[in-house]
Amino acid sequence: MKKNSEIWKDIVGFEGIFQVSSTGRVYSYKRNGTLGGILKGQYTNLGYHRYLLSKNGIKRSFFAHRLVADAFIPNPKHLPLINHKDEISSHNWVDNLEWCTAKYNTNYGNGIKRRSESRYKKVYQFNKVGNLIKTWNSGTEIQQKMGFLQSKTGEVANGKRKSAYGFLWSYNKIPGIL
Q1: Whole-model pTM?
Q2: Which CATH entry fits the domain spanning 8-112: 3.40.980.10, 3.40.640.10, 3.90.75.20, 3.30.390.10?
Q3: Which residues lie closer than 8 Å to 29 by C-beta, 6 or more apart?
Q4: Residue 43: predicted pLDDT
Q5: Rounded to whole angstroms, how far apart are CA atoms 23 and 35?
């Protein structure tokens, strides 16, 4: 099924009220005197598309990828999670999704590399008058190459100390700015 060929199915538990498409869109039927139509939903800060659905006055939040997988992808092994094959959380068409385990989802594609990179912040080393000396990839790199404790340089970069090892340290290119 291609991204362009859209198929609609009722959302389990919301039959006759809401449908989900194979591309991740949600349709609301006309009810309570309101017009039906495609819902906008909202995006989380991680880029996941989420919809707020209501039935009998009770509102529940659902991720688009979960609605699509539940409606269109068999899950005979009862796997708990859904993986985006292209690693883009807003691409919710059925061909881009697969049921998986937590371990598979964590290790999929560039996941390990992305998590590793997100753990490290660049650290800027300045002399006492604020001139940039060097840009480091992380506090770990400073500790490995210079022997300066990451906890001490990090305290300076976080504004908890004035200096460490005779230098100013910052996570920004301007010393002392958090």
Answers
A1: 0.63
A2: 3.90.75.20
A3: 16, 17, 18, 19, 36
A4: 92
A5: 22
Average per-residue pLDDT for the chain: 88
* Per-position DSSP letters for 37-90, written without gaps between them: EE---EE-TTS-EEEEEEETTEEEEEEHHHHHHHHHS--TT---EEEETTS-TT
> Measuring CA to CA, how many Å separate 64 from each of 20, 24, 50?
8, 5, 6
116: left (phi over 0), alpha (psi -120 to 50) or beta: alpha
If you count them, how many residues does the chain have?
178
Distance (Å, whole) CA 156 – CA 4: 53
pLDDT of residue 63: 97
3-state helix, strand, coil in the chain (%, to 5): 25, 30, 45
Domain ranges across the chain = 8-112, 120-170
Q: How far apart are CA 140 and CA 9, in angstroms?
A: 51
**pLDDT higher than threshold 50 for residue 45:** yes
Quick one: CATH architecture of 120-170? Orthogonal Bundle (1.10)
Which residue is associated with the tokens 């017009």?
A: 35
